[in-house]
Amino acid sequence: MTEILKVTGLCTHFFTRAGVVKAVDGVDISLNRGEVLGLVGESGSGKSITGFSIMNLIDAPGRMTGGRISFKGRDLSQLSETAWQDLRGNRIAMIFQDPMMTLNPVLRIDVQMIEAIQAHEKVSRTTARERARDTLGMVGIPAPDERLKAYPHQLSGGMRQRVAIAIAFLNKPDLIIADEPTTALDVTIQSQIIHEAQKLTRQTGTAMIWISHDLAVVAGIADQISVMYAGRIVEHGPTDYVIDNPRHPYTYGLLGSVPSANKRGARLFQIDGMAPNMLALPRGCAFGPRCDRAVDVCAAAPGMSQSCTQKFRCHNPVPEAVKVAK
Ligand SMILES: Nc1ncnc2c1ncn2[C@@H]1O[C@H](COP(=O)(O)OP(=O)(O)O)[C@@H](O)[C@H]1O
Ligand SMILES: [Mg+2]
């Protein structure tokens, strides 16, 4: 398997007047060709900042203060801004929650897509247009020739996001970072888009990081899952293992709050308390104050433990083979 992305010990901190926010604090990611990593966690846990750090898009008062990012075996820290511009949108693409972050409201879809191809590759307009049309078809857009002539405002929200996804895949990138791309869409459209995106990664070999606050969404697309809490990965492993037997109490709680047919009518489990204040994190395990399994040792920060199947950062993990009621 070809390793596309290797992130080790990534730290991105924000130096604000009120103090230092350790938005990302020692994150590791390893991703092979065609693989999908689901990055999941509550709002404010550091998912987007992880994505932006990989894209080298962190602005003051934020700064990558530590760690190493290697892309196809190449250390990205020494890259010039010109080299970054070529990498972005070409080898690494990003999809945002709001497709209008990608789309220009005053240009027709074909103009934007052709531009996106020609910015990185010397091909004729006709060739570029054909590829644009084919890629629209691949993301499940009916009558792509018609859609090419449209302006963004003439499309529905779901169609616009599909166009943004098509643009991300346009130059056959090695890696796509998708930051909550379906969060604003209704559930049916959401699952269609997840299905198309998953199919595309299989077809093209593009690796993907799919960011979501919703574990159910991530479970539907990802090969492996990393659960993030207060800037750290607290559990990581193949999707099936993490879903069937979560070891970190936070993951367990996230799973318990996912609705399913069998739980219909029953009250959904909720994780007590609020997301922590990133300026004043609790001592030891950041999840400790909300955790019903917390014990004395949790006053010291837990390291990453490894079982045969997954890794988790917890002193008193959920026992093996304790299934979440489904
Ligand atoms: N420009 C900024 N200045 C200060 N703190 C920031 C800034 N951007 C993000 N943060 C902090 O970084 C943390 C992680 O943010 P983010 O990655 O956007 O979370 P999410 O998991 O919701 O995507 C949050 O606690 C947020 O307050
Ligand atoms: Mg975010």
Short description:
Helices cover 29% and strands 24% of the residues.
List strands and helices in order, with pairings.
Elements: E1 3-16, E2 19-32, E3 36-40, H1 47-54, E4 62-71, E5 74-75, H2 81-87, E6 92-95, H3 109-118, H4 125-138, H5 144-148, H6 157-169, E7 175-179, H7 187-204, E8 207-212, H8 215-221, E9 224-229, E10 232-238, H9 239-244, H10 249-256, E11 305-306, E12 311-312
Parallel strand pairs: 3-8, 3-9, 6-7, 7-8
Antiparallel strand pairs: 1-2, 1-4, 4-5, 9-10, 10-12, 11-12
Helix pairs in contact: 3-4, 4-6, 6-7
Characterization of this structure:
By secondary structure, the protein is of the alpha/beta class. It has two domains: about 5-90 and about 170-310, 3-Layer(aba) Sandwich (Rossmann fold), CATH 3.40.50; about 105-170. It is built from ten helices and twelve strands. The strands form two sheets. Strands 6-7-8-3-9-10-12-11 form an eight-stranded mixed β-sheet, sandwiched between helices. Strands 2-1-4-5 form a four-stranded antiparallel β-sheet, covered by helices on one side. Strand 7, helix 7 (about 185-205) and strand 8 (about 205-210) form a beta-alpha-beta unit. Helix 3 (about 110-120) packs across helix 4, helix 4 (about 125-140) crosses helix 6 and helix 6 (about 155-170) packs parallel to helix 7 (about 185-205). Adenosine-5'-diphosphate binds near residues 16 and 61.
CATH class of the largest domain: Alpha Beta
Q: What's the architecture of the largest domain, going by CATH?
A: 3-Layer(aba) Sandwich
Continuous helix count: 10
Q: Average pLDDT value?
A: 93
| Unreliable spans | none
> Topology as H/E string?
EEEHEEHEHHHHEHEHEEHHEE
The portion of residues assigned to helices is: 25-40%
* Rg result: 20 Å
Hetero compounds:
adenosine-5'-diphosphate, magnesium ion
What is the H level of CATH, i.e. the homologous superfamily of the largest domain? P-loop containing nucleotide triphosphate hydrolases
| Largest sheet features | 8 strands, mixed
Strand order of the largest sheet: 6-7-8-3-9-10-12-11
- Number of E-type strands: 12
Q: How many discrete structural domains?
A: 2
CATH topology of the largest domain: Rossmann fold
Instruction: Quickly give the structural class.
Output: alpha/beta
The 3D shape can be described as: globular
Give the termini separation: 34 Å
Strand content: 15-25%
